[in-house]
Structures are given as structure tokens and as C-alpha cells.
């Protein structure tokens, strides 16, 4: 049996309030770069559903940029490491790794001859460094600032020049190579967040927390003019980039707008309003060929048009750990994927990942703990805000919310639209048609829950080292049997065809049972995970059982040949896998702490 990764539903950029993010543009105009966690995302700019992920950094990656030739990418992390790796091959082979200084690197840039790299950030001994991309030796000294560097850039034409923007409100100008300090411009009144040279090298611009954009001569560093009056924006400027002709500048700001400026007149020729919510602040931007991109504090990526204030496309998704996943099927609505994340967001995806929309309304205020659905189109979520929320029949928004008596752990939905929730030392049952919440107390703490395909039996995993099987009659529960386990039960699952039942315990054991008598089949055989199992799911035909765990691995077990197991180690590299769901008998989805969904093709 084989298990092959076929596509990735990519994370959005990770954002932090008050901090700019760095986007990188492919010189060939085909892809763009951003970071989230220890990953660098390479997305096709025309079709963002096409994505590659680089995951070789051991800590949080802060920025990534293409070399001017487009052959290499340099990425830098919060521990001060710079990795230079191949951009034009699937393996992304490492060329070099250097550590310019010890501390967080916030931005980097290449010289146009692909030979030198400048980095800036917050080191323990210095704030910037410039070095050879081949040997790592120093080619100058970046000094003259008294606080952390937020942004760096090189003049793209000879003679080379370097600029930095720092938290001492200054823009510093360097000549070289070897690069040495020439002058410092203290025209801003607050942190300088971004500095960028124009593509022709004739000018450069700085944007700062004071909302001002100042233009300088690219060869001398002399101040030329300022955009807007009295300032370009009423909030901090976090993003700034030039168009390919060096005539226009795109700026993004905490005032929840992006603007395009004509530098010959110093006035804005287009303003893009994004809303009034805090998450509508714009924290980064990119202008690559005909594509104009702005990124909001929510991580959403908006494609802009010079002739229209409204975005032509918005890329949505998660930028926090994905914690829950379900597949919803309905004759009228088709099949959709629902995923929930650590920040309480639920996203609805098309099967191919090309369309995505946030479920709107009264969202969870804390982590989405679990999602469930049935074949009648009912979708429900539970969260660590101790609530149950039902998504309406059109799958666009939340329909209703119920406060739960405790913190929920797991959820299941029967075909008769009864919602079952493992909630502390109780099972909560909610009948969707009647809107009634019934609580069934337990003498143990429930950890997981599953409903049989017929809706007549309910399995509840407990911290008492037992799996409890109940007969279900409406919302009345009667104990049918108790199955002893070796440790507390972490997950339970029924096969959709009604032939099998499976449970996983805290000792990483998975046991397969034959129904209807719950006779164990795989005891002492399925123990392949090295950490807590976070998800179990049967394929629709019951022939495969998939499991995922904190150990980053995915396992595919065969129910009719229990000695056969397919191991996918590092299914979500360096990140725990938190949830999974089968799209059909051969296609599996997994979600993890890398904020991505991954689609797998499983063939016997």
C-alpha cells in the first residue's frame, strides 16, 4: 500500500500586531514567499492552491527572499541562522548555512550579482551584517544604529549601496563593497519599519510608525521628498514596495488601508479600504509584475487592482495550528471540508483547495476542539470557550450556540441529527430539531466519543482505562458493555460500514475490534506511534484505518490484513499532526500544527 502527498492547503502568513511581515517575489514572476512557524511557503502567484513548503529550519523563520537569478532562496530565523537553498528543484537542497549573529533576523536582501547578503535584526552583539553568499565571510560592517534593525535592502544597480531602517527612528546609508557607514537620516519620529530601493536604483523609500513615507536619492542618500500631506497614512506603515517601472509605490498601514502613490506628484492614485476590525490592519505587501498583494493582520492575502478599490481575490485559511477537521456531505451543497484552529476560526474549503471561506458570525473565542458532521449536512463545532456551535444549512455562518456545562473534549453527530459531546464527567446530547440540551452524568472523565453508523450505539473513551459502549434511544443512554484498556483512552472510531470499531490509548496502542460483539483483532500488534495518538479514522469502505499523532507521523492500517501497515513519517515535518478525515476511500486529509491541511492519495 502506498501513501502519496498530492497537495497542500497552505497556511497563511503568521502575523503579530505591531510588526511588519516580509514577502519575497520570484524574479520570474511565477511564485511568492512568506513564512509561518518553521516553514517557508512557496505559492504560485496565479494559482495559490499550488504550494511547496520548506521545513528545514529548527526554529521560527522570520523572512525569505529569492536571489536575483531566481535559483536560490535565502531564509533566516529567530536564532540568527541563514539557510541558502535551491529554489528550482523539489528537494530544495541546501547550499550553505551561516549564522551572521546570535539573535532574531527580521529582514534580508541580496545584491543583484547574487554574491552578497545583508541581514538585519536584533542580535546580542550587533544589529546587522553583510556577508558573502558563497563563503559566509564578512564584506563590510553594518553599524551606526542604536536599536534593532527592522528592514534592509541593497541598491539593485552598481555602484552598490545598502540601506537599513531601525527602531531608533533612523535610516542608515552604506557605501561599498566592502560596505561601511556613510550617513544616517533621522527624518522619522517613530520606528522605521521598512526601507526599499526602486527597481532602477535611482531612489529608495522609507516607511515608519509615524505614517510617513520619505523618498531619498538612491546614489547619495539625500532626502528628496515626502508622500502625502501631512502624512501618507494615519497609522503605522508596515509594508512598502515599488512597481516594476519605479514610478509607483504601494504602502500598507495599520489604519486598515493600502495606497498606491505616484512618486512624480507625491499623491495617492488609489486607496484600498479593508474594513474597521483590528484584523483589517495591513501589515505587508508585494508588487510582482501585474500582481499587487496586501496582507492583513488576520493573515488574509488580498489581490488588488489598480483600477478598483475592491480586491479581485482574497486568499483565506489558517495561520494558527489546525486542531479539528471534518468532511461535510450534502446533496444540495456537495462535499466541503471544514477545519478549525487554535484561534477559534473555522474555514470551509472546496475539495480541490482552490476555494476557501471563513465561517462567519458568532465565532469561537478559544481553540476549536473538535468538528463533526453527518450525511444530512449538519456541521457542529465545540471549543475551549465551553460552547457548542451549529453551522447553518448553507454552511456560510453559525446558526446557533449552546453553552456547555464544562469543557468539551470530543463530538459526534448521528444521522438523526443528535449531537453527542464528551464534556468533562458527562455526556451532553443536543437534539437539533428541538434545541434541547440533555446532560448524562458519568462516574469518570470522558476523553473521546463516537457514534455507530446506525446511531444505536455510542462509544465513550474514559480516563478510567475503559471504553464504555452505550445503547442509544433518542437521548436516553443505557450501558451495554465496558472494554478494558491498558491506559486512558485517547480516541475511538466506528467504521462507516459498521464492521469495525477501533480505540487508541495513552500508551500508543491501537486495538481493532470486530462488530457486533467487539471482539479484539489487533491487540498487541498496532503500536507504531511514538507519542500520543490524536486522531483515528476509517475509510468509508472500512478497509483502511488511519491514525495520526504528536510524533508527526501518519499510519495507514489494513483492517482485512492487520499485519500490513504503511508508515508516513514526518507527514507534517517537525509539527504534531492533530486531526484527519477521509474524503473518499483513497483520499485522506490531515491537519497539524504547521497550520496546513495535507491531502494524501492512499492506494492498496
TrEMBL record:
Annotated SUPFAM superfamilies: Quinoprotein alcohol dehydrogenase-like, WD40 repeat-like
Repeat region (WD), residues: 54-95, 185-226, 230-271, 315-359
Keywords, sorted A to Z: Repeat, WD repeat
Domain of life: Eukaryota
Keyword Repeat assigned: yes
GO CC terms: cortical actin cytoskeleton
InterPro entries cross-referenced by the UniProt entry: Quinoprotein_ADH-like_sf, WD40/YVTN_repeat-like_dom_sf, WD40_repeat_CS, WD40_repeat_dom_sf, WD40_rpt
Pfam families: WD40 (PF00400)
GO BP terms in the entry: actin filament depolymerization; locomotion; regulation of actin filament depolymerization; regulation of actin filament polymerization
GO molecular function per UniProt: actin filament binding
Annotated family: Belongs to the WD repeat AIP1 family.
Protein name from the UniProt record: Actin-interacting protein 1
Amino acid at each position: 500500500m502506498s501513501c502519496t502527498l498530492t497537495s497542500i492547503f497552505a497556511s497563511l502568513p503568521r502575523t503579530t500586531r505591531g510588526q511588519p511581515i516580509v514577502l519575497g517575489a520570484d524574479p520570474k514572476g511565477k511564485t511568492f514567499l512568506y513564512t509561518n512557524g518553521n516553514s517557508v511557503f512557496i505559492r504560485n502567484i496565479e494559482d495559490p492552491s499550488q504550494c511547496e513548503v520548506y521545513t528545514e529550519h529548527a526554529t521560527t523563520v522570520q523572512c525569505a527572499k529569492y536571489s536575483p537569478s531566481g535559483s536560490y532562496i535565502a531564509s533566516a530565523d529567530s536564532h540568527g541562522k541563514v539557510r541558502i537553498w535551491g529554489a528550482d528543484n523539489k528537494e530544495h537542497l541546501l547550499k550553505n548555512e551561516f549564522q551572521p549573529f546570535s539573535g532574531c533576523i527580521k529582514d534580508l536582501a541580496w545584491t543583484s550579482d547574487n554574491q552578497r547578503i545583508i541581514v538585519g535584526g536584533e542580535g546580542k552583539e550587533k544589529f546587522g551584517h553583510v556577508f558573502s553568499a558563497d563563503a559566509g565571510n564578512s564584506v563590510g560592517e553594518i553599524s551606526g544604529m542604536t536599536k534593532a534593525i527592522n528592514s534592509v535592502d541593497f541598491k539593485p544597480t552598481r555602484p552598490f549601496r545598502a540601506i537599513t531602517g531601525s527602531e531608533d527612528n533612523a535610516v542608515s546609508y552604506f557605501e561599498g563593497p566592502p560596505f561601511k557607514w556613510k550617513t544616517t537620516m533621522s527624518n522619522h519620529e517613530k520606528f522605521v519599519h521598512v526601507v526599499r530601493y526602486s527597481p532602477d536604483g535611482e531612489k529608495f523609500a522609507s516607511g515608519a510608525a509615524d505614517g510617513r513615507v520619505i523618498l531619498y536619492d538612491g546614489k547619495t542618500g539625500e532626502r528628496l521628498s515626502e508622500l502625502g500631506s501631512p502624512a501618507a497614512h494615519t497609522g503605522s506603515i508596515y509594508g512598502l514596495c515599488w512597481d516594476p517601472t519605479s514610478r509607483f509605490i504601494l504602502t500598507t498601514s495599520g489604519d486598515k488601508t493600502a495606497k498606491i502613490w505616484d512618486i512624480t506628484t507625491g499623491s495617492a492614485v488609489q486607496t484600498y479600504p479593508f474594513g474597521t476590525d483590528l484584523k483589517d490592519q495591513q501589515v505587508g505587501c508585494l508588487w510582482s509584475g501585474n500582481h499587487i498583494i496586501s496582507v492583513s493582520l488576520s493573515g488574509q492575502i488580498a489581490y488588488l487592482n489598480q483600477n478598483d478599490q475592491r480586491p479581485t481575490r482574497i486568499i483565506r485559511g489558517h495561520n494558527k495550528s489546525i486542531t479539528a477537521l471534518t468532511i461535510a456531505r450534502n446533496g444540495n451543497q456537495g462535499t466541503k471540508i471544514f477545519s478549525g484552529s487554535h484561534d477559534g476560526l473555522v474555514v470551509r474549503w472546496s475539495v480541490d483547495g482552490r476555494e476557501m471561506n471563513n465561517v462567519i458570525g458568532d465565532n469561537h473565542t478559544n481553540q476549536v476542539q473538535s468538528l463533526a458532521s453527518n450525511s444530512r449536512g449538519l456541521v457542529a463545532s465545540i471549543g475551549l470557550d465551553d460552547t457548542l456551535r451549529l453551522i447553518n444549512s448553507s454552511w456560510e455562518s453559525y446558526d446557533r450556540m449552546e453553552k456547555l456545562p464544562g469543557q468539551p473534549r470530543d463530538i459526534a453527530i448521528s444521522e438523526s441529527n443528535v449531537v453527542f459531546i464528551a464534556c468533562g464527567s458527562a455526556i451532553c446530547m443536543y437534539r437539533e430539531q428541538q434545541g434541547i440540551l440533555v446532560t448524562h452524568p458519568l462516574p469518570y472523565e470522558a476523553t473521546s466519543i463516537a457514534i455507530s453508523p446506525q446511531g444505536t450505539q455510542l462509544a465513550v473513551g474514559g480516563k478510567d482505562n475503559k471504553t464504555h459502549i452505550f445503547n442509544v434511544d433518542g437521548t436516553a443512554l443505557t450501558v451495554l458493555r465496558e472494554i478494558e484498556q491498558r491506559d486512558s483512552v485517547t480516541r475511538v472510531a466506528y467504521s462507516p460500514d459498521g464492521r469495525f470499531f477501533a480505540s487508541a490509548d495513552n500508551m500508543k496502542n491501537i486495538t481493532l475490534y470486530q462488530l457486533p460483539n467487539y471482539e479484539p483483532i489487533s491487540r498487541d500488534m498496532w503500536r507504531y506511534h511514538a507519542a500520543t495518538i490524536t486522531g483515528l479514522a476509517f475509510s468509508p469502505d472500512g478497509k483502511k484505518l488511519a491514525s495520526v499523532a504528536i510524533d508527526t507521523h501518519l499510519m495507514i492500517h489494513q483492517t482485512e490484513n492487520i499485519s500490513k501497515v504503511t508508515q508516513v513519517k514526518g507527514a507534517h515535518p517537525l509539527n504534531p499532526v492533530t486531526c484527519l478525515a477521509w474524503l473518499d476511500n483513497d483520499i485522506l486529509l490531515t491537519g497539524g500544527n504547521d497550520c496546513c491541511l495535507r491531502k494524501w492519495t492512499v492506494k492498496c
